[in-house]
Each structure stands twice: as structure tokens, then as C-alpha cells.
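Subject: mismatched residue count in predicted assembly?

I count 732 residues in my input, but I want to confirm that the predicted structure covers every chain. Input:
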Amino acid sequence: MSEHLKTNNAVIKWIDHRLPVFSMMNETMIDYPAPKNLNYWWNFGSLAGLALVVMIVTGIVLAMQYTAHVDYAFNSVERIMRDVNGGWLVRYIHMNMASFFFIAVFIHMFRGLYYGSYKAPREILWMLGVVILLLMMATAFMGYVLPWGQMSFWGATVITNLFSAFPLIGESIVTWLWGGFSVDNPTLNRFFALHYLLPFVIVGVVAVHLWALHRFGSNNPLGIEAKGPQDKIPFHPYYTVKDAFGVGVFLLAFSGFLFFAPNFMGHPDNYIPANPLVTPAHIVPEWYFLPFYAILRSIPDKLMGVLAMFASIGILFILPWLDRSPVRSAKFRPVYKWFFWLFFANCLLLGWVGQEAAEGLPLLLGRLATAYYFIHFLVILPLLGVMERPKPLPVSISEPVLKGGGALAGAAAKPMEKA
Amino acid sequence: MKKFVLTAAAAAVTLSLGLGTAHAAEAIKAPSKSWSFSGVFGTYDQAQLQRGYQVYKEVCSSCHGMDLIAFRNLADLGYNEDELKALAAEYEVTDGPDDDGEMFDRTARLSDYFPSPFPNAKAAAASNGGAIPPDLSLVAKARVGGPDYLYALLTGYEEDVSADVLQSIYETETHKREVQYAADLEAYSVKKAKYDEAVKTDSSLKEPKMPEDPGPVESVEDLGLPDTSSFNAYFPGYGIAMAAPLADESVEYSDGTPATLSNHAADVSAFMMWAAEPSMDQRKQMGIKVILFLLVFTGILYAAKRKCWSDVH
Ligand code: HEM
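Triage response: the counts match. Full output below for your records.
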């Protein structure tokens, strides 16, 4: 290992011989060979990582001032905003970075969908990503409960109540989740404990996610494997500088919200202290849950709604086996490309439906969009795998597309089909 | 209590699942107003905040508390320490227990928070016909529209709004009633047909009642608001349990600003915005610096990226 480490520093060499951390860092971040044609959609993984670090750092600082008790939580957050030095900044960073974390992760996932990054041999890498998404959702949901505003309380009440839909054991699950007979102090306490814990679980899963990534390296916009050294470049300096530039743009957009509209993505009702006796007119979750919330509400049966909502994420786990097309990148899939954008628009539609009252037109659109969401995965993708005729694939990342290479495309695709 | 919460929770779920039809009445949207603190470079106007504080103190504070604001916070409004001490000294607060175990009253200090007008929520409701005047510390962030909404609300009583606004409310409400009436009629005709069929075999059935035409809304009376509430064009449902708190000449300003309803409402709304977000000025100033820095930083990184990548392709 340490042969590859270019250093003259005796201390580093001494340590690395016994504990090869420097070699490992070198292999994962410096010399790590990456395809040379990655576009800017590949920036969002590192941006999500940055967001995770920012969340943990600001979260720990908040936790030093926060009080997880129904009588004090709301005011302790307001004390952070008013009396703790720089407290408003830390709290607004934590609030807004949660949203930007989801933005980065959603883009990261759509990137994966477009370029077929979930296909062999990266299925486990993709599935680990879905695990991260689930953990993030749990973390964000419980974090939103902590300031103990009206939306905190009622959001927690509505979402935990979903589990009561399960026959026989439902009610007991809800009581167990609450630690009592309603959302109350025990609920707040356990949510705080878990909200502190889960981000570190996410760090662990991210580490495994990267481990799986480094097994075969990144996919790329062409969706073909790098053939040799001419197709690759070392991560540093090429992608470190590109990622750093991405960080600059990301932070610019983030600062726009942080400093000039910090409550834009929040809900005004959460500045009203939680009151179990007053139900808000509309209970809406944070924006990043809206598409899933729309799926939940579009099904008239509560249990089926809950199952559909979980299935909408669960289905991503089996995506690598639903999409049978041997070609990864939508660049070479003339029909899938259209369905990708349709699916994307459908997700936006679900998001819009999620914030409307479930009646009339939104309800109808929500039902259609929910049906389409599952049709995309269960019908369209399997059919496309068989029926679509992909465009010819380039021979390698460095070489241009060969004209009339239909047969070649098939040939290039063969090994993957078997994998 | 537990039972109640469970029921409420179940109700909330039903509501959110779209099975219920209950729908909060919407009010009209507050027009956006230009504030000294609007926009990227906007800052609070200290003179306005001082006037707003005066309105709050002389009018609103008899019903509304501001639990999160301490006298020391008023330094933001431009008062010096002596002025602040004098302001605090106008109030009595309860402290203790002293060495004899007795609670005692003393004049307020800078570290004390604004005293509440009522000892508890029940007392507040009892004095206000059952409605509780909300704490105003965060109200500017707790309502859609923020200070625009607050200004619209305070100037949105029947005598104060324009005929156009009233007319548009009448029209939307008339329309809503027509839609509701049509739906009721349809439901009625279905019920009636069923009844006509069933009554042949069972004469003891009750005939369904034909819904009454609610008629158009042509005045505030036609809205049918409860007696305890006043019409307000911007309050959800139009009936608010707070009688118009402000009018021209409600308070006398010492800085020569005309004592109009509009000025009172704007000043106290600005004051409530400050109370909800005291760090806004600081936040925007920092934001401008951070964004300028990031622009330069990102520009340099872009150049570095271009340079670094020039040998690839
Ligand atoms: C995966 C990373 C994380 C996500 C997505 C996340 C998300 C959130 C969200 C959405 C809120 C509500 C913000 C608000 O409306 O006030 C919140 C609050 C909070 N979080 Fe996190 N968080 C993360 C990590 C952490 C960590 C690591 C800690 C501390 C160890 C932490 C501590 C807190 C505290 C104390 C609050 C309540 C204070 C507040 O509401 O601002 N968070 N979090």
C-alpha cells in the first residue's frame, strides 16, 4: 500500500506503515482514478457530504443550548435565536441546510436515474443510497419536532398516527412510539435522542456507500465503463477543484436563503408554541416530504396509503432489477429519456399536490400521479428494457461514437446483461 | 385529556387524509407594502420602531403580552441606558420569595421581560369574550404575509377598508354560497328520490328537508358573523374577536409624525417584526459580505478549474 504514497515525511511514513490511514486517504481522495468525462451533475454527492458535516456541526452546537422538554423547548430555541451569540446564525444554518441537504440528495438521485448509475455492478451502492435517504427522512422528521411549534406537534401527531393503520398491532405501535398516550414529553425526549444519534448512523452508511463506490469507481455520462488509463484522471486536482467550485455555487444559493429568506422554506405555524387543543387549519409537512405525503393521501384507505408511501421509496431498492435495459445512460436510450423527464415532472406534480388540501382537482391529480409513479417503475421500465432500441454506444470514453454501430452496442451491452 | 388528544389526533389524520370536508374560511390576501426593512439592503427604522413600541405600550399591551422581549432588548430601538431604565421603571414586577418567604413587588429592571397583562390564559379569555389575545413576540413570523398581514389586519375593519375590497369579499362569498347551495340541492335531490321510493313501503320515514337558498352576500350583516366578533377583511373567516384597536389619534407621537390610523398600524407592525426577528439587520449585513466573498471565492475557483482542466479532453 504505502509504496504509492509519495511523501518524504518520516513521521507520516512511520505511522502509515503501521496504520495505513494516509495511504487510504490518498487512494480515496487524491490518486483515486475517476472517469474524465463527469459533468456537473456529479458534484451533488460531495455537496450532500458537505451538508451532512454542516448539519452535524451546527446540530451539536444547537444541542448545547437546546432543552428537550415540552415546557422549555420552544423558548429554548427562541433563546438561541435571541440571546446566544451567533445563535440565530447557527439555527438558521441548521434549518436551511436541512432543505439544501435534501435538494442535493434529490438531484444526486435523479442523476443516478438518468445515467443508470444503479445498474450492475453498482446495485448495492444504489441501495445504500436509498438507506441514507430513509435515515435522512427520519432524522429530519424528528428534528422538525424539536422546536415544539404547532407544526412540530401536529406533524408528529399525524405521522406517528399513521402506524395505527396496521391491523391488530397498530395502536400498540403508536403508544410505544409515543411513550404514552399522546405526543408528549417522552416523545420529545426520544426524538431528541434519536435526532442526535441518526446523523452518525448516516455517517456510517455514507462510509459504506463510498466503499462500494470505490469498488468500481464512478459511473459517467456515457454510462460505459472506463476502458483504460486514457479514460481516467486522478481525483486530485481535477475533481477536487471542480467539487470546490461546486461548493462555491452551492453556498451562494444557500446564502441567498440563509441571509435573506431564512424562513421561506419553513411554515409560519411553527412560530406558534405547540398547543394540543388547537389544530392548525392545514397540517403540511416540510417541502421535501410533500411528494410522499401526496401519495399517502391519494389512497382512500389509510393502511393502503401508508403502504403505498413506504412502497414509493421501497421500490427504489429493487429498481436495478426492474430496469432490464443493458444500456445505462439515458443519452443512448431515446425512449427512456422521455420517460425520465415525465417521471421527473410527475414527482414535481406530486410535490405540488402534497401541499394542497386533498380535495377536488389536487386530489384527482394526486391519484393519477401516484398511479403513474408506480407505473413508471413496474410497467414502463420493464417494458422499455425489452422494447427500446438503444442508440449505438461509443467504444470508449475517449473515442467518439462509431457510426452505424448497432451491433457493437449490443456487443458492449452483453457482459452487463449477464452481470 | 388523553382521550381528547387521541380524538383530536384521529380528527387531524382524517382531515389530512382528505376524508373530512371541513375547510378553514380563507380571507383575502394582504397587499404587500413597502417597509424600511424590505429588500436586501432594507434596515429597521429606529424612529419607527420607537413609535411602534409606543403604540404597543399605550394600546395593545393591555391585552397582548410580549413574553420574549426584555427591557434590555429595547436598546435596539436606539434608547440609551438611562432611557431604558426609565422605561423599565414604569412597570412593577413580582419577585421573590424574599428571606421571609414572601413574594414582593418591585420596579422592573432591564433584565426583566415585559409583564403579561393577564395572570394566565383563562383570565385572558375571560376578559375577552372567550378569545385569547395571542402573545405578539413572534406573531410577525407566525402569520402568512408577516408585517404586510399585520398592517392589513389593523387597517382591515369595516369602516377602514375601501368599498372595492368589501365588494370583492361579497362577490367571493356569494359565489361560495352558490356553489355550496348547488351541491346541497344535488345531495337533496338524491335523498329525495331515495325517500320517494322508500316511503311507498314505509310511511313512517321523514321527508328530507329542502335546503334554503342562502341568497347573495350584499353587506357585512349577510356574512352572519357571531355578535362577539368584528368584521375584518383580512382575518381568516372575516370575524375577529378583537374590536378595532386603532383609529386616527390613538396615540400622540412626540416626533411630529401625523397620528393617523395608517401610521399607527405601520409603526406597530414594524415593531412586531423587530420583536420577532431582532437580528434581521445584522443578518442582512452579514449576508451581503458573505455573498460578496463567495462571489470572489467561486470566481477564483472557476478560473482554477478552467486552468487545471485545460489539458484534459
Ligand atoms: C442528517 C443530518 C440532520 C438533519 C437532516 C437535521 C434536520 C433538522 C431539522 C429539519 C430541524 C428543525 C429545524 C427548525 O425548524 O428549527 C432540526 C433541529 C434540530 N437539530 Fe438537527 N438535523 C441533522 C443533524 C443534527 C445533529 C447531528 C444534531 C446534534 C447533535 C442536531 C440537533 C438539532 C437540534 C438541537 C435541533 C432543534 C433546534 C432547532 O429547532 O433549531 N441535528 N434538525
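Residues 401-419 of chain A have pLDDT under 50 and may be disordered. Marking this ticket as 'not a bug'.
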